[in-house]
């Protein structure tokens, strides 16, 4: 096995400190081994493939799925900048899901243009515990547009490669301290008065909730008339709670970009 330290590369630019050289050609079924943290101990939000388009660009699709040994699936965006390819949006979710620590590595094995298999190890070379859910977890990205693609179909580099919520997504915002019911019943309660009546209507039956990794969760909406009038958010809300280990007292911020019916809402666990 190659010396991993020797695989570090010079700084790409201010947005991408400490990327990695190509270690092996994964499209031949050989593993590609990647460090998940930079030198400061922070998770890297993008991984660069240092290889030319002619060799690799035609062998991966815009979106690829990373599978682990328990069939959990993570969709990530593949972007191109100059002659390099990057795993970007969705990549940082690995840190949250596997509770990874500094020094962790992932081995990727190419299976087909849209799918890789992952094997994760900690800094001591021991296998990382892979959560076993029934059914397995599936993280799907929100796809805002299909523009900015190059001749190979890969999304071109636009601004920053790592996903982040735009300020405009929170033109109208709702902050809540989650209670026991919100995280255990499978439903999130949002008061009708204020935020609810401004950005939802009785005609709204479902929407996509996009988290701060860029993954989307399809939620259902019911308007409930009880002692108080409120919106009952279900669908994949419970999956989101479980995947992010939400508990009573967690603070969430939900944003909507416009008044009226919104088909897409945005959520963050960090309230600024």
UniProtKB/TrEMBL annotation:
It is found in: Nucleus. InterPro entries: DNA-bd_pseudobarrel_sf (IPR015300). GO terms for molecular function: DNA binding. GO terms for cellular component: nucleus. The keyword Glycoprotein does not apply. The keyword Transcription regulation applies. Coiled coil: none annotated. Keywords: DNA-binding, Nucleus, Transcription, Transcription regulation. Its main location: nucleus. This is TF-B3 domain-containing protein. It comes from Pisum sativum (Garden pea).
